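Render this sequence as a predicted structure.
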Amino acid sequence: MSDCKSHKTSNLLSRSQTQEEQAFTALYEEYWDYVFEQAFIRCRQYDIAENITQDIFVALWDQMEELRIENIRGYLYTAVKNRVLNWFEKERRYVPIAELLIEYQAATDSSDTPLLDKELVAVAEALINSLGTKQQVIYRMRYEQDLDTAEIAKKLNMNRKTVQNQLSLALAQLRASLTLLLVLTKFF
């Protein structure tokens, strides 16, 4: 008797799980374009908008049992807005290297500037060379060959997320070093 009850419970669970998957697939297919469009309008970067869209649907899938959403379009709109704001906040923490170089140029505005520029290029190259081998290759492909992370991942036969993580780590290391260099030049 317990085998029969166990079989019925298992059958019910698989049926409800299948229904849940079908419902999610329908939701995904119906709203993916909308979510992507809303993300792209806000961040203007295809790969970032795509990542945000995927993250929203993954989170939605993970929380599907707990969530009780009455207005799915409104929920997705708010999710996009929050994810994009989080992305902007994260990006704001990093000062672009070009801005650091402009500040460096302003800080060293003197007759020694050409010499200091050459030294800065040498320091920047040394910093890039100090990166791990994989980070160095990814960094050069991104900023010297102007490839996006999807192209780099394909060429290196790597996961795109791994490429993005390695690039983020490399940029963080370079920014920290260049920021220290900028601070030192202002004091000396």
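Summary. The helical segments are 2-43, 46-62, 72-92, 97-107, 113-129, 133-143, 149-156, 160-187. Residues 2 and 8 are 10 Å apart (CA to CA).
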